[in-house]
Amino acid sequence: MKKHRGELEIDEDIQLESTNWKVQRVAWVLMAFVVFAALLGFTGNGGIGNLQRLKAGDSAEGLEVEYERFLRRGAPAEIKVKLVPSSADSLTDLRLNKDFYEKLQVEKILPEPSGQYTHEQGITYRFASANQPFLVIFYVKPEGMGSLPLQFSTSKKKVNITPFIYP
Amino acid sequence: METVIRGLLLYVFLMIIFRVSGKRTLYEATVFDFVLLLIIAETAEQALGGEDKSVTNSFLLIVTLLLADISLSLLKQKFSYFGKVLDGVPVIILDDGKVLHDRLKKVRVDESDIMESARELQGLERLDQIKYAILEKDGKITIIPKEQ
User: Fold this and answer.
1) Which residues of chain A have pLDDT under 50?
2) Is the CB of residue B106 less than 8 Å away from at least one CB of chain A?
3) B80: nearest CA in chain A?
């Protein structure tokens, strides 16, 4: 063991320690960035000004999807879908791709669909409505990780969204 | 499998985050450090177990964490430099009666912290009774008094 001033046996390595101090300061800045990003909503669950709450599609064209860009695995989230029924029919079908029910655990749908069935492309929810635009809220819990391409489609319009799921 | 990955991820994450927070951060110097430690423990618990409350999961987690700890200590033993990087090294903060202010600033310690240790460990009354003060790897300050 090294001796300091010929008397104090100590394994001091001030060079390593000063590198360590520099690394620490850089890490503190990074930590501040993480917190800042979280405040802006980059880690999911809202954020200042709801910057990460996105809209896709257009309600004038019969389908609009409102969703969070960043989701977290196991954390409850909601997807809002605005639908306009076709004038001839009081029943509106909303088709979703397979990933929707494979990677998201659908906890609740409001309003309850009057019918739902799966097929090769995914799942279809059928909603009864009073021939006017209406809103459907999906309460979901993500189960997968990474990018999740979702496709919402009605007989007239298709909307693609790709939220990201954090582990 | 997920439990093992969760355990290892959290182990590594906590190790890095405490390493870069500095030695004194959670040294329980104040009541609030202690409270902070409790909150971190509680938060980490959620990430560790998830929704799986089974006994198997707990056993698996404990074994994983202990194994990680044992592996790490073996590595540290074999490669001493690795150990130094991971745990840090002791730093002299009061050398032969002289306070090294630049180092104090870097390690976020002040003279009152040194005096606290001096009173507690050696029953000293004044700073000039101290020959060496060393900030140890674990964040403790040890004191070597001047010979009377």
Assistant:
1) none
2) yes
3) A11
